[in-house]
Amino acid sequence: MSKTFGNRFFSPLALLIGVWIVVELITRFIGEWLWFQDVGYLPVFLIRLRTQLGLWALAFFPSAVFLFGNLAIAQRLKSSKYEITQTTTRKKHPIPKSFGLRWLLTLIILLCVLAGLILGYYLYEALSIWQPQFRFPPVFQLQSWLPVIHFFQRIGQLSPFPIPYWQVVVIVGLSIALGLGGLSTAILAGPYFWLRAIALAISLSIALVAALRWDTVLKYFYPTSFNGVDPLFERDISFYVFSLPVWELLRFWILGLSLYGLVAVTLIYLLAGNTLSQGKFPGFSLAQIRHLDVLGSFVCGAIALHYWLGRYQLLYSSRGATYGASFTDVTVDFPVYIALSLGSAAISLILLWQAVFSTQRRSPLSPLRLGGSFISGAILYVTVIAIATYTVPMIVQRLVVEPNELARETPYIQRSINYTRQAFNLSTIDVETFNPQPTLTAADLQENDLTIRNIRLWDTRPLLETNRQLQQIRTYYSFPNADIDRYTLLSAVPGETTERRQTIIAARELDYNAVPQQAQTWVNQHLVYTHGYGFTLSPVNTVAPGGLPDYFIQNIGDPGTGDDGALEVANEQIRASVPIGQPRIYYGEIANTYVMTGTRVQELDYPSGNENVYTTYDGRGGVNIGPFWRRLLFAQYLKDWQMLLTQDFTPQTRLLFRRNIRNRVQAIAPFLRYDRDPYLVAADGGNTTLQGEPTYLYWILDAYTTSDRYPYSDPGTDDFNYIRNSVKVVIDAYNGSVDFYIADPTDPVINTIAAIFPGLLKPLDAMPAALRSHIRYPIDLFSTQSEHLLTYHMTDAQVFYNREDLWRFPTEIYGTEPQQVQPYFLITRIPTEETEEFILLLPFNPVQRPNLIGWLAARADGEQYGRLLLYEFPKQLLVYGPEQVEARINQDPVISQQITLWNRQGSRVIQGNLLVIPIEESLLYVEPLYLEAEQNSLPTFVRVIVAYENRIVMAETLQQALDAIFQPEITPATPIIRPVEEN
Questions:
Q1: Residue 315: exposed, middle, or buried by beta-carbon count in 10 A (0-12, 13-18, 19+)?
Q2: Per residue in 759-781, pLDDT tens?
Q3: CB contact at 8 A, 492 and 485
Q4: Which range, of 263-272, 545-554, 642-651, averages the lowest pLDDT?
Q5: What's 831's DSSP letter?
Q6: What are the start-end ranges of the E strands in 583-721?
Q7: What is the four-CA torsion angle of 710, 711, 713, 715, rounded to 10 degrees?
């Protein structure tokens, strides 16, 4: 009765679940198909989907067949008994002591724990690749010198996918708890069912990992040579970047299947019949032993592959004085891994030979002896591995290497230096000596007028705060970010037709979360509030009356033209230089909602006085959902059933989703790593609306190719040890179109990706010239390179080992708190060049000293794009660093008194970024001051501080400050001029 009821209840439930899964998969597939078709990258989606499905099937079905097949064989052989023949005598085969219940339960529980470890590890890997945020955070730190921690570190390094030791500890702990707890009880109660359930979970996990590593597998078939080899194995670096990850994926697959198969089959044999009720195990039959021999052979073969590939992992070792294979790794671990691999392969062949050719009948004692020998052999083998891979290397490291470390490690240190510099593109840096001279004059400033006119007085943070007070217009608008760029403008300077101006641009996006709660209806969210409107553009070096930004472009509505929808432009030169037509932003940094356009409900365009102006989208973006079947499809896809109930849709209705530009490009090309800071550009990019009108607002986002497999390259604090800024991505803010341009055609990784996805990447020359003039060197890459340069500017192994010349990033006071100096953009003339250019610059200090030791510049204009210049100061010369200049500013009695006075009047002084500006053969230091009310965050520019040599000046304008320093005879009375004593 209950069985019939169960069948009646669960069969329809299973059918409903199956139908739901099928419907979900179909709707997602068609929805993705239509979206990729809309953005023009359907071939990329099909290649990805085809590869993922193929890898999933290739991994899942053989895994399931292998595990379920072995479990079925074990189920059939579990009742096989040893048969005592008439010729068997007690004298020839003495009866042993029984294999008692205590030892039997101990062995069963240990095997359950091992099964739990395997299951836990494979589930963890599948989840962490599928959802990267699942990886455990480093919630605790342990002393790295403890032997147990070294042991777990070695496990993490040698696992199929190397993971941090603290994650190994967590995985092992959870798996042991799982094995000792519910898993042991479940297996004892129903071994065949639960072992098959675990087999299914492992097979699905392996298949999911394989499918999610689809790009890794594709790269294996389209390798591009790096034209360089590693010094240990003399293999092309492409082997490590493209081939080794696939071999490790194969190891991950084979090792888990064979090990779990052996554990599961052994459990079935141990739990067969009434073994537990009788309290003893009678022994394995000949057929069972053959079965275990075959599985043992597979395990040993997988271990042989594991250690053979483990040799290559030595190139990423963190043991020793530097990163990469060290003296101990090469002289001890390398031969040990070869020996362990060959030994495991030999054992695998012996077990396979024994399984095929052994026909000896055994008494009940022989299987026990064989089992005992197997257990003893396994323990001995693990002990040998632990001694060979942990104890012996540790002894050699402590007794042989450390007493004479420099001599032993010098060639390996040199390798790490060379390969780290190659991987992070530091080897291409041009190094020059910069010898600052106190010879800067007013005439020099006049010759470098473009540099002076572009000295940044406005930082992005105070400007954003001011924008949010003055330019948001309505609460639902937001300025999520502001970016430094340069524009070529018609010049108002006599004798010049155009001039380059460094500017700050900020997009006015729509933030639906800021819409009043009462107005957050479905219609408003998806049909009315669809886009942001316009942007602000302001020069970095000028200030409007009242200390506010001097906007080139601002507001919504231009009183000069009478057009309520036009952005307000400062003058005709700006209007002729910066295109501002079609200012609507449908795709942006915070556009996280999906919207429907072309409906019977008009979209909010912009506010005009007390009224609102409405519009209808005429862009090329979006998927047409006019037909009912598409509405039904996307209602299921987006889980939004209001789409079926609304009466506002028309045959022209389009669905715009994935409007967040980072999510958009990530969906198209997830195999690239993207910069954190996309920036807006107002330029003629060549795109048009459906009505043929040009669009002028574009986002530019830098993309990187990375790898964690570059030999000997030190990743530092990053999760990669190779990086190139190989791609520039351009996204139309109105149409949503996405274009990928190759910025570094010398990168082997991007050439491999181009071979995998023909048509995805375009040459940089194909980018419209107006957009190409705005590309800049990415800050994320520059910061990563600068961080590695702190140590890896030392190219001599002995100097590197002694850490004689370590650098650090300087600090500055921002607001009232110290912070690390961040890279900043300048328009300046590099000492070796004749014209000004747009560069990214960062100074360096020696460790434990505040003076400057050098500065790194990244060039971003024209043919010089991507070139890095490192200017080093003579070590015997004292050059003031930002910390010393900040200290002199804050210690000056008159300047500090003025700052203190402002801080006491219900306001707060914000000390801006201290800029170190190279001019000719000298350095000029400039720091703006802002004043912010405590009750209302509206920062205003109040003063600028300029320091040069032994003089510090605080004035209302930059020109006043410069005149006070370089033309003291005409200095007005307002600046505060303070002499500074030399140290």
A1: buried
A2: 999 999 999 999 999 999 999 99
A3: no
A4: 263-272
A5: T
A6: 584-585, 595-597, 603-608, 611-615, 623-624, 654-656, 673-674, 679-682, 697-707
A7: 60
CA dist., res. 628 & res. 189, Å (int): 53
| Angstrom distance (rounded) from CA 304 to CA 312 | 14
CA distance 542 to 551: 9
- The shares of helix, strand and coil residues in the chain, as percent rounded to the nearest 5, are 50, 20, 35
User: Which residue carries 């009940």 as its tokens?
Assistant: 364
- The neighbouring-strand residues paired with 739 are 730
Residues in the chain: 983
- Taking the C-alpha atoms of residue 660 and residue 585, their distance in angstroms, rounded to an integer, is 11
The CA distance from 332 to 338, in Å, is: 10
Task: Say how far apart CA 295 and CA 289 lie, in whole Å.
Answer: 10
Determine how β-strand 907-911 pairs with β-strand 922-933.
antiparallel
- The number of helices, as runs of H, and strands, as runs of E, in the chain is 32, 38
Distance in angstroms between the alpha carbons of the first and the last residue of the chain: 98
> How many Cα neighbours within 13 Å face the side chain of 769?
2
Cα distances from 900 to residues 811, 814, 891, 936, 974, in angstroms, run 22, 15, 12, 19, 18
Give me the amino acid identity at 263: V
Which residue type, as a one-letter code, is found at position 476? Y
Is residue 235 within 8 Å of 243, Cβ to Cβ? no
Instruction: State how far the Cα of 110 lies from the Cα of 786, in Å rounded to an integer.
Output: 50
Q: Say if CB 814 and CB 428 are below 8 A apart.
A: no
Q: What is the number of alpha carbons within 13 Å of residue 473 lying toward its C-beta?
A: 25
Average pLDDT over residues 390-404: 89
Any alpha helices (H) in 230-285, and if so which ranges? 237-238, 244-270, 275-278
Distance CA(663)–CA(20), nearest Å, equals 27
Nearest partner of 461 among 887, 74, 822, judged by Cα:
822
The three-class DSSP label of residue 691 is coil
- Helical segments of 387-533, H only: 392-396, 405-423, 442-447, 449-453, 460-470, 522-523
Angle between helices 42-77 and 286-313 (to 10 degrees): 150
Q: For residue 550, which amino acid is it?
A: D
Q: Using CA atoms, how far apart are residues 37 and 620, in angstroms rounded to an integer?
A: 12
Strands 477-478 and 509-510, bridge-based pairing: antiparallel
DSSP state, 274?
T
C-alpha of 927 from chain center: 33
Query: What's CA 181's distance to the chain center, in Å?
Result: 37
DSSP letter for 107, please. Answer: H
Q: Residue 346 has which token pair?
A: 């030999």
Residues 482 and 927: their CA atoms lie apart, in Å, by: 19
Among 309, 378, 322, residue whose Cα is nearest residue 347: 378
Per residue in 347-379, pLDDT (tens digit) is: 899 888 888 876 654 443 344 344 445 566 667
Distances in Å between the Cα of 287 and the Cα atoms of 272, 354, 355, 367 are 14, 12, 9, 11
Residues 449 and 493: their CA atoms lie apart, in Å, by 11
Tokens (6 digits) for 348:
């695998």
Element (H, E) at 936: none
CA atoms lying within 13 Å on the CB side of residue 392: 15
d(CA 373, CA 31): 59
Q: What tokens were used for 329?
A: 């790794």
Residue-level pLDDT at 156 = 45
